[in-house]
Amino acid sequence: MIWIVAGLIVWALGLWANVRLSKRKTSAAALAVPVIFGLVLVFVWEAVVRGFGISPVLLPAPSVIAARFGQSSGVLWQDFVQTVLKGALTGYVLGCGAALLTAIVVDRFDFLRRGLLPVGNFVAALPIIGIAPILVMWFGFDWQSKAAVVVVMVFFPVLVNAVQGLADTSAMQRDLMRTYAAGYWTSLWKLRLPAALPFIFNGLKIASTLALIGAIVAEFFGSPITGMGFRISTSVGLLQLDLVWAEIVVAALAGSAFYGGVALIERAATFWHPSQRGR
Amino acid sequence: MKNVIPVLTVVLAILVIWYGSAVMLNKQWVLDQAARQDRVLTTPELIAETWAQDKPKLPAPHQVALELWDTVAMKKPTSKRSLVYHAWVTMSATVLGFGLGTLLGFALAVGIVYNRVMDKSVMPWVIASQTIPILAIAPMIIVVLNAIGISGLLPKAMISMYLSFFPVVVGMVKGLRSPDAMQLDQMRTWSATRAQEFWRLRLPASMPYLFASMKIAMAASLVGAIVGELPTGAVAGLGARLLAGSYYGQTIQIWSALLMAAALAAALVGLIGLIQRITLKRMGMA
């Protein structure tokens, strides 16, 4: 009972603080509001689980998850290396690299652009994750098959965005390059690739979340005895939900860091773009 | 229509590569079989056999097409062996999840646009929520919801909903904010109430954004439904077909389920596109 009352009080306090803070326009307030919201959410979760006595088999409390996180950090680190560093990151680099090279080739030949782009758009909307069982069958159970799934998943979003970006320069800008007597490669390198960067980074950001999902889901179809997907699916069977949630925390942290890293590189590389200025 | 020839060329190229890879990938097995039976294969024989295995590493397109024809047209749609039945199971979860997700996304977007506190506090968490790979924890959600007595369509729809609300929130926030200051001032000079401003200006202005994000949401929703079917113990649905196929090495079955999923995605997204075209035309925006 005490926990429920405490949860209600904290919720009211957080709401009150946020209403007050959101009227200010400082950058500290802009940071504090979502942080308070998140803290209140975690506390209310804890209070609800304890107050209503929800079984840890259904929903473990945040404190239990945190304890588990500390206890099994070795296992979690192993899984992180197997899934994120070996599977997702390798596949991400290979897939995005291949997509960018393909985009340049496609952009060079108009026939390919008109033919490949509708097909690429179509494929980008498909449930690509479905090829995971096939690729696991081809490349074996270890991280190579996970990287292959990630390659296929990230390829089309990046390709479509990059091709769109490479076409984004105006006729005036291209004419200017021609008056400078710039050849194809010079104008690609100095004008069209930089102009395409905002689009490319858009694709890279979409791909960063897809990569993690692909690597984890591919492990459901067979994996060695490490890996986040493996741990999640076996721990659910053993009803060790605290370990599952600890893996989810790792996945969320890794996903946020991955996305944030790409966003940081974007800010450094496209500092001149209107969407990055004036903040 | 000028894109027809390039697209057909690309599709043809894909088919050629597909047939070629089928030869490459299935060659080893055929050669082993032949060596065991002391047969020497000529090249045409070899190629023909790689395209006609029972459990090939990569089935040739015509094998998949045959299996599709067999399971779609030749079986009764209510039979468990019919792919139409499985597609129907997946589609109902997809559409239910998509509907719930669109409603949730719409409500959140209206809240975010009209309420400052929600804008500041909820929006960062909506973005953060998508860094949790929900597909990865789908098995747990299914099991937990089963334990508290929710089973069948709803758990799968919940996963679809989680995946599909995000594009709608982002798109609708953008869309509801797309009227510029001049248009908003115009509404104010007509002394329009906030409700009138919403129904007459903001909502109509957001329609193109809504349809664009609904297409993404529908595709995401289908992925969610398929992955949601993986841990249910392979009962019904396209995801279950995929899992059963991968357990028993039935590659032809996997590929036909995949193509069926692709067709389903194309049909659902195409349907939204059709509604979009009709709606925008009637609103005079297209």
Short description:
By secondary structure, chain A is mainly alpha-helical. Chain A has helices at 2-21, 27-51, 62-71, 73-108, 110-124, 132-139, 143-166, 171-179, 184-218, 228-237, 241-269.
Write the layout of secondary structure elements.
The complex is a heterodimer of chains A (279) and B (286).
Chain A lengths: L1 H20 L5 H25 L10 H10 L1 H36 L1 H15 L7 H8 L3 H24 L4 H9 L4 H35 L9 H10 L3 H29 L10
Chain B lengths: L3 H33 L6 H8 L10 H12 L10 H32 L1 H14 L4 H14 L5 H24 L4 H9 L4 H36 L8 H11 L2 H32 L4
Main location (chain A): membrane
Membrane topology (chain A): Multi-pass membrane protein
Subcellular location (chain A): Cell membrane
Detailed description of the structure:
The complex is a heterodimer of chains A (279) and B (286). Chain A is mainly α and 279 residues long. Helix content of chain A is 79%, strand content 0%. The longest helix of chain A is centred in the first third of the chain and has 36 residues, at 73-108. Chain B has two domains: 4-57; 83-282, MetI-like fold. With 286 residues, chain B is an all-alpha fold. Chain B has helices spanning 4-36, 43-50, 61-72, 83-114, 116-129, 134-147, 153-176, 181-189, 194-229, 238-248, 251-282.
CATH superfamily of the largest domain in chain A: MetI-like
Span from first to last CA of chain B? 19 Å
CATH architectural arrangement of the largest domain in chain A = Orthogonal Bundle
Based on DSSP secondary structure assignment, what is the total number of beta strands of chain A?
0
- Greatest interface by residues involved: A-B, 56 and 60 residues
Name the overall outline of chain A.
Answer: flat
GO cellular component, one term (chain A): plasma membrane
Protein name (chain A): NitT/TauT family transport system permease protein
InterPro entries (chain A): MetI-like, MetI-like_sf
Membrane topology (chain A): Multi-pass membrane protein
